[in-house]
Amino acid sequence: MLFDRNEIQKVIPHRDPFLMVDAILEMDPRKSILGLKNVSINEPYFQGHFPGNPIMPGVLIIEALAQTGAFMLLREVKDHEKKLIYFVSVDEARFRRPVKPGDQLLLAVKVLSWRSEFYKMHGEARVGGDVAAEATLMCKLVDRAPAPAPSPTQK
To answer: For the chain, which ranges sit under pLDDT 50?
Structure first.
């Protein structure tokens, strides 16, 4: 393992319950990254998706791919703590098999293009060697809004 959850949280702003990457296993900066998501029955979305047949929502699999890619991209950006990566498009998304509690989701992301503040990536989420989902993602680097000043009652 190259990076654990604590190290991931130093780069991307996501936190529980919305942090969808548990570890970074491999990385070739500006080219590709391999992340890991351990899918647990304790994930809050399993309460309603679906009772008696829990399945990880496809949009959250895509989000896990995006967070994995964002980690790699932000590590290469000067002053990354002042930046965010926003989704601008998701293309050619395909869902091939359900992801269930107990699965380990391998998140492979490859950079297709890298232009100043726009990035295009292709992601593939696998379980046990089988493709669970894939998509092409376009992202944009933006400035993080400054934290609001505390109100007089919060001082």
So the answer is: none
